[in-house]
Write a structure and sequence with these properties.
Number of domains of chain A: 3
Strand content of chain A: 5-15%
Structural class of chain B: mainly alpha
Membrane topology (chain B): Multi-pass membrane protein
Shape of chain A: elongated
CATH class of chain B: Mainly Alpha
GO cellular component, one term (chain B): plasma membrane
CATH architecture of the largest domain in chain A: Orthogonal Bundle
CATH topology of chain B: MetI-like fold
Order of helices and strands of chain B: HHHHHHHHHHHHH
Radius of gyration of chain B: 26 Å
Family (chain B): Belongs to the binding-protein-dependent transport system permease family. CysTW subfamily.
Strand content of chain B: under 5%
Largest interface: A-B, 87 and 89 residues
Number of helices of chain A: 13
GO molecular function, one term (chain B): phosphate transmembrane transporter activity
Helix content of chain A: 55-70%
Largest sheet of chain B: none
Largest sheet of chain A: 4 strands, antiparallel
Oligomer: heterodimer
Distance between the termini of chain A: 64 Å
Protein name (chain B): Phosphate transport system permease protein
Strand order of the largest sheet of chain A: 2-1-7-3
């Protein structure tokens, strides 16, 4: 006699029925839970955007875009220097990170070595990039602070209001001396970089405020003062003391970089480099191998294949990835805060390569952390501006992706 | 017999120039790749040399750093009385991270299950961009959201039990930040599970719930776990949210309603105080950064190993 399987012999049809409907109910409940939880993310985004809009919409004025931060006139504070600062910092970041990132991705994807030790090295670089992507951005900030801002103090320590380190170009030191005409100064070129002061007791060659060369006369106290204003303008009292002033051209450059927007941009480049590399690699991997093989078969070298076949085919993906990475760079506050410091009182964008800068996220951080309600509203308004900029960038990425999908299908 | 036209025109370029320029380009590209290695070396060198300046100081010992229960690098004026024990900062970081994970892991995983198993393509085309937008929101904005909305609502809901700056509001904001990351990585892992497994489960009479939870999730477990680890390391390294919303007082407690200065929060606070280069307080930055780096590095490495070692491949 054949026996029924245990499962069938023990349980009756009613039990089977109720068990099945229980499982069905469970499944429906789970589906409901999934929908509810998936909705949470939508709700969160809506609440986030609405609350910030409500808080900041009253401050979205021309003042916000045109003015600079002010402690005294909070009502009219603005973010113009921060917008320019972000532009400069992210510009440097893009100039450094894009070629480096795409170059690394090309090397890793297109020039795969055949020898065993080199293959091992290849894998190591790959693993290293994955790890770099996981390093917190604030650690990159500290790296920037040590390597770019102070450069391990190899070039001497930077002191406030003192030119130090290695000034490589663009700096013009001169002594500023008061002339007899009130409110007028003349300049004497500085020859010895260590001498911070001079005393004038005999006529020297100098220049006026406009930079034209003049002969500086000396007036001995006790003798009659010259009366002609033109002469008075280029005459100084004997024993007058001149202190160094530094005129910096836009290409003023020195080492270490100090808290300059250049250092900030380089640090940001480190932060987004892994992102760009990974995105470019994915994109290059997506290029069909048959394209490469065809190119190779026509006798092109590897580099010619990369330049004329793989890179153009992968370009849309690389551009999308790079734009998203730049969006990350614009919104990144922590490394910039560490490298450039938390000060936000700045009236204009950077004046020379070594000038400090404020960026939008740092300004938002500063405003958001203050007690006054005006600043909190300003922070919300600045966030709206930042989000609009990010939105524009992201839609550019989406449009590129869309165009490519159309042209490929 | 006449030669073919292409060969008549005997203007062949030497391949030597091409070979050399090819070599140069390979070397240049290799240098680019080398820079990424240099960055890692730079990070490690910086952390070691600079934190050595901290541990060499007479006021600090490695033992005290690891076991002392107070961190008063910024609060105390007198260096001799300053306490450098990492535990309060670590506890702050862990509190915030734990709360963030309580938010991000379940929500992210279930959203991922929904996206990969249930959602129609129309809902996907709405939900995915929403998540991408959340992922693209700058962290400083989420920090502002935490002090603008989350913290007041917590205070209102609890009747004032929460202090203005607290670990919970920062944790929730960090959780929101990590959610899209958990979701997209887990979804990728689940989409890689072949259709035949699902069809097998349905054929055996499984409900959609049983198919997704008992078949698809276990099959994608390595990817999901590595997503969790990456999110964890991201939450630990998150800076701006905690700098704005978690407060500036290092506390060694498990109470999520109180202030909690985290390791990253301390670094920001220290930078804002603009202490002089070379002081013990300045070097303490790097000691904290070393701890931070080691934890996140271990997490990322573990995530990589889990993904590679335990990845199930279906042919």
């Amino acid at each position: 006699m054949s026996t029924l399987p245990k499962a069938l012999s023990e349980q009756d049809a009613d039990f089977q029925q109720s068990n099945a409907s229980r499982r069905q109910r469970m499944s429906v409940w789970f589906y409901g839970l999934c929908v509810a939880i998936a909705l949470i993310s939508v709700v969160v985004l809506v609440v986030l955007l609405v609350s910030i809009w409500v808080q900041g919409q009253s401050r979205l004025t021309a003042d916000l875009l045109m003015n600079s931060h002010s402690e005294l006139d909070i009502e009219r504070s603005g973010m113009w220097p921060a917008i320019i600062g972000s532009l400069f910092v992210c510009g440097v970041c893009a100039l450094v990170a894009l070629p480096l990132g795409v170059g690394t991705a090309v090397f890793l994807e297109e020039f795969k070595p055949k020898a065993k030790p080199l293959r091992w090295l290849h894998g190591f670089v790959q693993l290293n990039i994955a790890n770099l992507a996981g390093v917190p951005s604030i650690v990159y900030g500290l790296l920037g602070l040590t390597v770019f801002v102070y450069m391990f103090n190899i070039f001497g320590q930077i002191k406030v209001n003192e030119s130090s380190g290695w000034e490589l170009m663009g700096a013009n030191h001169k002594y500023q001396v008061l002339s007899l005409e009130t409110g007028n100064v003349v300049f004497v070129p500085q020859t010895d970089p260590d001498q911070r002061q001079i005393t004038i007791d005999q006529p020297v060659q100098g220049m006026d405020a406009a930079g034209d060369p003049i002969e500086i006369e000396v007036w001995q106290p006790g003798t009659p003062k010259p009366t002609d204003p033109a002469v008075r303008r280029r005459t100084v009292r004997s024993g007058a003391i001149g202190a160094t002033v530094t005129e910096k051209s836009w290409y003023y450059f020195r080492l270490p970089l100090d808290k300059s927007f250049l250092a900030g941009g380089l640090t940001l480049a480190l932060v987004i480099l892994p992102i760009i590399i990974i995105a470019s690699q994915e994109s290059l991997r997506g290029v069909s191998p048959s394209l490469r093989e065809a190119s190779m078969g026509l006798g092109a070298t590897t580099w010619q294949t990369v330049r004329d076949v793989s890179l153009p085919a992968a370009l849309p993906g690389i551009m999308t990835g790079s734009i998203l990475a730049m969006g990350r760079a614009i919104g990144e506050a922590a490394p910039i805060l560490v490298v450039l410091g938390a000060a936000v009182a700045k009236n204009a964008g950077p004046q020379n390569l070594m000038d400090n800068a404020v960026t939008m996220p740092v300004l938002i951080y500063n405003w958001a952390g203050r007690q006054q309600d005006e600043f909190k509203e300003l922070a919300a308004a600045a966030i709206i501006v930042l989000l609009v900029i990010l939105l524009l960038l992201n839609s550019a990425a989406i449009i590129i992706r869309h165009k490519v999908q159309q042209s490929q299908s | 017999m006449a030669l073919p036209k292409a060969l008549q025109n005997r203007d062949f370029r030497s391949t030597r120039v091409g070979m050399i320029s090819e070599r140069i380009i390979v070397v240049l590209l290799g240098l680019c790749a080398l820079i990424t290695v240099l960055i890692t070396i730079g990070i490690i060198y910086m952390l070691v040399t600079q934190s050595a300046g901290f541990f060499r100081s007479d006021f600090v010992s490695l033992r005290g750093f690891l076991t002392d229960k107070e961190w008063t690098a910024l609060q105390s004026q007198d260096l001799a009385k300053a306490q450098f024990g990492i535990l309060p900062l670590l506890s702050g970081t862990l509190r915030v991270t734990l709360i963030a994970m309580l938010i991000a892991l379940p929500l992210g995983l279930i959203t991922a299950i929904y996206l990969s198993e249930f959602a129609s393509s129309k809902i996907r085309s709405w939900l995915k961009p929403t998540l991408e937008v959340i992922a693209g929101v700058p962290t400083v904005v989420l920090g502002y959201f935490a002090i603008l909305v989350i913290s007041p609502s917590l205070q209102w809901a609890s009747g004032g039990a929460f202090s203005t700056f607290n670990a919970t509001s920062a944790g929730i904001a960090v959780g929101i930040l990590c959610l899209p990351m958990v979701c997209s990585l887990s979804e990728d892992a689940m989409r890689a599970v072949p259709r035949s497994l699902r069809e097998g489960a349905y054929g055996l009479g499984c409900t959609p719930f049983e198919t997704s939870v008992k078949v698809v999730v276990p099959a994608a477990l390595s990817g999901i776990v590595s997503a969790f680890l990456l999110a964890f390391s991201r939450a630990i390294g998150e800076t701006m949210v905690v700098a704005l919303a978690a407060g500036t007082l290092p506390t060694l407690t498990a109470d999520p309603t109180r202030q909690a200065q985290t390791m990253t929060g301390f670094i920001v606070e220290m930078i804002k105080s603009e202490s002089e280069y070379g002081t013990v307080q300045y070097f303490s930055l790097y000691a904290v950064a070393v701890s931070l780096f080691l934890i996140t590095f271990a997490m990322t490495l573990l995530g990589q190993i889990v993904r590679r070692r335990f990845q199930e491949s279906y042919q």
